[in-house]
Amino acid sequence: MTEKYTLLVTCGHLQRHIGCFREELMGHGVECWVPQLAGQQFTEAEMIQMVPGADILIAGDDPLGANVLSAGRAGKLSGIVRWGIGTDNVDKSAASALGLPVYNTPGMFSNEVADLAMGHVLNLARHIHKMDRDVRRGEWTRYEGTSLSGKTVGIVGLGGIGQEVARRARAFGMTVLGSDVVSIDPAVLSRLEIDQRPFDALLAGADIVIIACNLTPDNRHLFNAAAFARMRQGAMLVNVARGPIVDEDALADALESGQVGAAGLDVFEEEPLPMSSRLRAFDNCLFGTHSGSSTSQGIGRTNRKSVDIALAMLGIGSGSLAEYHRVA
After folding, report:
1. Among 185, 226, 186, residue whose Cα is nearest residue 203
2. 71: pLDDT strictly greater than 50
3. What Å distances lie between residue 92 and 8, 87, 104, 219, CA to CA?
4. Which DSSP letter does residue 183 get?
5. H helices within 99-148, ranges in order?
6. Among residues 322, 324, 328, 325, which one has the least CA distance to residue 97?
7. In the β-sheet with 30-33, what is the strand arrangement from edge to edge?
8. What is the pTM of this model?
9. Which residues contact 158 (CB under 8 A, 6 or more apart)?
10. pLDDT digits over 142-187, tens only?
């Protein structure tokens, strides 16, 4: 008799498409548990209530701190798949101490996030969002934009996303500076025509700064008042990484003074963006909904990889865990 397993899916992207996998999973004796998701993620209390009943969890941005992991381990939880790239919501030390393996899915949508980053740059440089707004209300406003060719873009984080941003920026005729906490292979830098520099040198040299790095305990509020003061007067900031990398109060001050000329933000310190946020007052800001990965192709690839990892964790299916990226 086939052993029965329970797969808990709390990631909204996979929840929407779980019908594509139900028959396959049932064939392996895996029952899908897809609780109703009202917002972007479940609360800690909700996760603590659910995780003990699952063998494997595929999670999104849900809180995966020590309390949640301990509750899962006290039940039958034997592994976690973190859908996507970021793992800042996972207490990796606690997972390791509990012997609870955690895998993620890097490299699934580097192109998609890079596309979105450049979309913000193009919109802000040419005031497309303002023209659209004005035309809709019967106005015919001509805005004087900024040419991208000849400008310098600074990319913070030179992983897969940062490298794809660099490729696109070069296609627009821009000079590319890059900063990372690790040294990047010189062959990669040469191929992509990236000049890797220290963080402060990048801030001083860039007309446009794009954040594409992981969130870590060391870079929370990396972009604070001091960082904005080191940027070129009127520089553009684009964040397609994680909201807490930017101190939003300091950014509001920099926008108010004109030190930062425009900001494109797909992510925020608190999501959804609170109605009380000072950033809402600036029409030189362009907002997203943490949607860098949200294309049908990117979501499809990541859903497939997440399910494959879950099956491998259970020792069924055709894949081997050695193929996948473990973070804890």
Report:
1. 226
2. yes
3. 20, 8, 12, 17
4. P
5. 110-126, 128-136
6. 328
7. 30-33, 5-9, 56-59, 79-82, 102-104, 325-326
8. 0.94
9. 166, 178, 179, 180, 184, 194, 196, 212
10. 999 999 999 999 999 999 999 999 999 999 999 999 999 999 999 9
Cα distances from 315 to residues 3, 41, 97, 324, in angstroms, run 11, 28, 22, 14
The residue type of 183 is: S
Q: Is 142 a catalytic residue?
A: no
For the domain spanning 5-108+295-326, the CATH number is: 3.40.50.720
Task: Residue 286: count other Cβ atoms within 10 Å of its Cβ.
Answer: 21
What is the CA 31 to chain-centroid distance, rounded?
29
- Among 73, 82, 127, 242, which one carries the catalytic annotation? 242
Q: Does domain 110-287 have CATH number 3.40.50.720?
A: yes
Annotated catalytic residue within 271, 278, 301, 304: 271
Q: Is 242 a catalytic residue?
A: yes
Residue 44 a catalytic site member? no
Q: Terminal CA-to-CA distance of the chain, rounded, Å?
A: 32
- Structural domain boundaries in the chain: 5-108+295-326, 110-287
Is there a shared CATH topology between the 5-108+295-326 domain and the 110-287 domain?
yes
With a cut of 90, say whether residue 39 has pLDDT above it: no
